[in-house]
Amino acid sequence: MEARLATLESLSIYWDTNIDSIADDTEHESFKALIATKENVPKEHQYVLKLVSGTGRVKFNKQFGSGVPKFEASLLFDELSFTVDNEQYRDTVLMIDLFHSYLKKQKYKDLRPPSDMTPKTHPLEYFRFAGNAVLSEIHERNERWTWRRLKKRRDDRIAYINCYVNRKLDRATPDELEQLENLERELSFEDLRFYRSLAKPKLRREKARLAAIEKKRKKEEAERKASQGWSISSWWSGSSSATGKGQPSGEADDDLVITEEQKQKFYDVIDYDADKATIAASVDLPKGVIWPP
User: Which positions are tagged coiled coil (predicted)?
Assistant: First the structure.
């Protein structure tokens, strides 16, 4: 077990609601002066987490498991205080409201009049903007249930799934890659996530199918090599001699792979009974006797 001593000094979080901008300070001296230390504690900060100082002892257990943790820490703080005043709460709500307003305006950014137009100087333009914003939502909602939109969405889904699967399998054509890139630019994030969730099961099935085809191909290739390197003499004598091409016996044995099914088919063709052959080999008959009779 090893132990280490850790020291924490002047950790704080503050949110100042009334402070001047320091953007013009290129040397960052003003920013450095705002950092609280043990010797320098700025009074103008509105702290959310007041300054925290303390020590900690960390143990490292070399032998750890389900009942023994790898790290053990004992922390001692002088004070741990969180505060939120009314001004900070007000600014937090205002910031959330501004983000909500920005996201709402972003939807109608293309319909909004130019920035040099204001509601006072161009009231008619802003009245048209308000009307077009409402009509755009109505048109979008109605467009979702038209046959043309449904057919296009179906075609995009099928095309995206096929192109995505082919790209993952490294068999996509240049046209499919270009179509996939265009669809990813056109479709929304929600549609892409949904279509990929539909493509993953198909990708797994396709990989399993290709693996089965490859396994079958290797098996057929092994059987073909075995049938080419097979000879009748090797069945009867069990000889491991080289083939007619002058290959060594070890290489011939490696290429000769005969399944039990193929062996039985050959026995049926030549009317050979392996059980009788085994019995005949075990019986010591006089020379010149033909068995079976």
Answer: 166-225
